[in-house]
Write a structure and sequence with these properties.
Helices cover 39% and strands 22% of the residues. It has 499 residues and is α/β, with parallel strands linked by helices. The protein folds into two domains: 268 residues, 3-Layer(aba) Sandwich (Aldehyde Dehydrogenase, Chain A, domain 1), CATH 3.40.605.10; 186 residues, Aldehyde Dehydrogenase, Chain A, domain 2, CATH 3.40.309. Helix 1 packs across helix 8 and helix 4 runs parallel beside helix 6. The N and C termini lie far apart (76 Å). The relative contact order is 0.14.
Length: 499
């Protein structure tokens, strides 16, 4: 019997009342895993009311006590790390090893948020003027929300929830309806760790729930990760409703391979960064840019046998390089891009579309694909494919390779592989992309730096995690004080100064 999932509101599992459901699948087998309720506007409003009631007491709790709850949460997650990773892998399709990385990168941000007592500190100036002291304080916004994607069902919810909760807010998560099992379990663990009921809530839903979140006047901030078209929609509608909004969208991440690069190292990097998690990562390398014909020929010659030997398997196979894609619809979309590339005139050097796995014929599998001689006018270069497809775009020189990354509409991540420190330094300074790797293929910053793309990969002024997260989830109040002994007689009609 297929399980019927719930929402998580006020510390309890709550059945959906809309009568609308969507199916979540086991990507390994193609079977229906669960029925996911889709919330109405009224159901979202009930979650907001619950969070709004719970937040003041949590916001008044001192940051050190809030941090202790996060510490206990970390302990609980580590105690069932393996079972969480297995659930995540089954629902998403990524391998168990990759699922563990998903969870770990989320926990690292929670670890950073334990520093809330320091991160929430304001500033103080004694004697800023005659008898005047000035100080500032950071205060929680109130009720905030996160709308997160299918590809990192543990990491990105924790990137949103950790700073929001540590800063004293109540948080509402709208996870992807494709794999909501792990977010629901995280909600249970937060409650078990001592988080008050109503501070971490999960509401499942589709566009109706998203619009309800964006329009609700009591939700003060919204964080989103997903496709660029939806990111722009969320940003525009949320801002129009007067909210603080941060949205991260699509990507087309380039990796520049200079003639002096260690070619074996570069190939290893492309294989892992291009095909890991079946390419379903916003930081995946999807474009290889070898500089010079000789570099390009050597690169492609080395890539072909490596891609052909990749092992595609079920998520539970510890020897698999990557598993299935998340749904049949997404698999069909990725395959359609491969066909489009052929029609556009790119050279399909490795074709993984016909891959079938014995015993898992109904799973959502495909093998790795490699295109050569892709040009910047092709749609397979312009658009995010989000699958195990790597495109080689040949550049005649360094200047052309830099221009490719700079001129693309996306600016999430980029990498350069070279032995030349001067070239690397010049690239890091001039490339118009938010996250840069030098001989590092997936330059995801560690938790105490911020994560965010440029151009149409990011909307909003503040990034995810790091100090920006606490700025996003708090408001600054500045107090100027002067006590009676220092007050002059009579009214003052000019703007105060410190003279």
């Amino acid at each position: 019997m297929v399980a019927e999932l719930t929402h998580f509101v006020g510390g309890k599992h709550v059945k959906g009342t809309s009568g609308r459901f969507t199916d979540a699948f086991w990507p390994m087998t193609g079977e229906i895993a669960s029925r996911v309720p889709l919330a109405t506007k009224a159901e979202v409003r009930a979650v907001v009311e619950n969070a709004k009631t719970a937040q003041p007491a949590w916001g008044a709790t001192n940051p050190q006590r809030r941090a202790r709850v996060l510490m206990k949460f970390l302990e609980l997650v580590h105690a069932e790390y393996d079972s969480l990773a297995e659930l995540l892998a089954r629902e998403h399709g990524k391998t168990v090893a990759d699922a563990k990385g998903d969870i770990q990168r989320g926990l690292e941000v929670v670890e950073f948020c334990i520093g809330a007592p320091h991160l929430m500190k304001g500033e103080y100036t004694e004697g800023a003027g005659p008898g005047i002291d000035i100080y500032s304080m950071r205060q929680p916004l109130g009720v905030v929300a996160g709308i997160t994607p299918f590809n990192f069902p543990a990491m990105i919810p924790l990137w949103k929830a950790g700073p929001a909760i540590a800063a004293g807010n109540a948080f509402i998560l709208k996870p992807s309806e494709r794999d909501p099992g792990v977010p629901l379990r995280l909600a249970e663990l937060f409650l078990q760790a001592g988080l008050p009921a109503g501070i971490f809530n999960v509401v499942n839903g589709d566009k109706e729930a998203v619009d309800a979140i964006l329009d609700d006047p009591d939700i003060k901030a919204v964080g989103f990760v997903g496709s660029t078209s939806i990111a722009e929609y969320v940003y525009t509608r949320g801002c129009a409703a007067g909210k603080r909004v941060q949205c991260f969208g699509g990507a087309k991440n380039h990796m520049i391979i200079m003639p002096d690069a260690d070619m074996d190292q570069a190939v290893d990097a492309l294989i892992g960064a291009g095909y890991g998690s079946a390419g379903e990562r916003c930081m995946a390398i999807s474009v290889a840019v070898p500089v010079g014909k000789e570099t390009a020929d050597r690169l492609v010659d080395k890539l072909i046998p490596r891609i052909e030997s990749l092992k595609v398997g079920p998520s539970t196979d510890s020897s698999a390089d990557f598993g299935p894609l998340v749904t049949q619809a997404h698999l069909d979309k990725v395959k359609s891009y491969v066909e489009l590339g052929v029609q556009e005139g790119a050279q399909l050097k490795v074709d993984g579309r016909n891959f079938k796995l014995q015993g898992y014929e109904n799973g959502f599998y495909m093998g790795g694909c490699l295109f050569d001689n892709v040009t910047k006018d092709m749609r397979i270069y312009k658009e995010e494919i989000f699958g195990p497809v790597l495109s080689v775009v040949r550049a005649k020189d360094y200047a052309e390779s830099l221009a490719l990354a700079n001129e693309h509409e996306y600016g999430n991540g980029v990498a350069i592989f070279t032995r030349d420190g001067d070239a690397a330094r010049d690239f890091a300074a001039k490339v118009q992309v938010g996250m840069v790797g030098i001989n590092v293929p997936i330059p995801v910053p560690i938790a105490y730096y911020t994560f965010g793309g440029w151009k149409r990969s990011g909307f909003g002024d503040l990034n995810q995690h790091g100090s920006d997260a606490f700025r996003f989830y708090t408001k600054t109040k500045t107090v100027t004080s002067r006590w009676p002994s220092g007050i002059k007689d009579g009214a003052e009609f000019v703007i105060p100064t410190m003279r």
